[in-house]
Design goal:
mainly alpha, 126 residues, rod-shaped, 2 helices
Length: 126
């Protein structure tokens, strides 16, 4: 199928060469890296990048501080829970010791009463 404008190979080649020349002219007329406008734009980009990096570092510092605070709160809660558990265990142990002491005292009182009755009975038999 032929091109609708019926361009010949030579025409297409000439058009390609002209486009290539225009492209090279465009790149040749582009501002050079040492151009003051280019240096100013580069400085602006570097300033924006530095500000962005500073904001990122600040965000990371805030996140680290928040994480540290959360860890400290968790450690404090764990210590409080452990102290509460220890206090409850000590209270249960003290209650058990008190109960045991009362039982021993009751047993001793019963034994003393039994011994007193035995001694009284023996005294009456003589």
């Amino acid at each position: 199928m032929r091109h609708p404008s019926d361009n010949s190979f030579a025409d297409r080649r000439k058009n390609a060469a002209a486009a290539k020349k225009e492209l090279l002219a465009k790149f040749a007329s582009a501002p050079k890296p040492n151009d003051p406008a280019m240096q100013e734009r580069r400085a602006e980009r570097e300033a924006v990048a530095a500000a962005r990096e500073a904001r990122r570092a600040e965000r990371e510092a805030l996140k680290a501080a928040e994480n540290e605070r959360v860890l400290q709160e968790a450690a404090a809660r764990a210590a409080a829970a452990e102290a509460h558990e220890k206090a409850e265990a000590e209270a249960r142990q003290a209650e058990a010791n008190d109960r045991i002491a009362r039982v021993i005292a009751d047993e001793a009182a019963r034994k003393a009463e039994r011994d007193r009755r035995y001694a009284a009975r023996k005294a009456r038999q003589r």
